[in-house]
Specification:
There is one protein chain. The chain is an all-alpha fold and 116 residues long. Helices cover 83% and strands 0% of the residues. The chain contains six helices and no strands. Helix 3 packs antiparallel against helix 4. The longest helix has 29 residues.
């Protein structure tokens, strides 16, 4: 979104939006996979529901932030600052959850019982 906000060329801007959409899809699938692989079976429904609420409410909060920033400054400033805030959040989450990158999920109780 930062590159889209900085792009003077509409075709390059469109390409940046396509890349942002693809990255969002990868993010949703990755987040769901991490939740499913690292949540105990007995808590999976509750944790998945909480993850879904965050996934649906997060963009609305970001849209509100973007609208407030755009109202105070400009649309381009809102896009650029939002993209940079997102990158900062990714760095913070990546630094504070390093154990999720290197660990493997425990075996699922139903598949472990079915193994010979």
């Amino acid at each position: 979104m930062t590159l889209f906000g900085l792009s003077p060329n509409p075709w390059a801007g469109l390409a940046f939006l396509v890349i942002a959409g693809a990255a969002d899809t990868v993010s949703v699938v990755s987040r769901s996979t991490v939740v499913q692989m690292h949540t105990p079976h007995e808590l999976l429904g509750r944790v998945s529901a909480a993850e879904q609420i965050v996934g649906q409410a997060g963009p609305d909060i970001g849209n509100m932030r973007g609208g407030l920033v755009a109202d105070a400054t400009s649309g381009a400033a809102a896009l650029v600052s939002g993209g940079l805030l997102c990158l900062g959040a990714v760095v913070v989450v990546g630094a504070t959850t390093a154990d999720l990158r290197g660990s493997s999920a425990p075996p699922h109780p139903y598949t472990a019982a079915a193994s010979p």
